[in-house]
Amino acid sequence: QVQLVESGGGLVQTGGSLNLSCAASGVTFSIGAMGWYRQAPGKQRELVASTSSGGSKNYADSVKGRFTILRDNVKNTVYLQMNSLKPEDTAVYYCNVIQKWYPKQGYWGQGTQVTVSS
Length: 118
What we know:
Helices cover 0% and strands 55% of the residues. By secondary structure, the protein is mainly β. The N and C termini lie far apart (40 Å).
């Protein structure tokens, strides 16, 4: 059974930094994309950053230049380095992992709260 365990969330002041990590266990398949999403109260879940198995990366415009996504394929872990945090970054952050091959099933972590105070 695949489990994604996130850690690193918390409370930080505007301009501060946080590092999130998400470790996948019970993986018996090749992992394709790994990514981070977030959901603020009253809003839809949105993509923050993703990285493909080939190493390409994609960022939401709102976090470009401030956030960096990294992955460790040996540890099946994805990281999100968040710098220059803003109050609008406040949300629950979820990691997502997708199988590389058919049926390309996706898996979600339980979420970790990030709160940026002004």
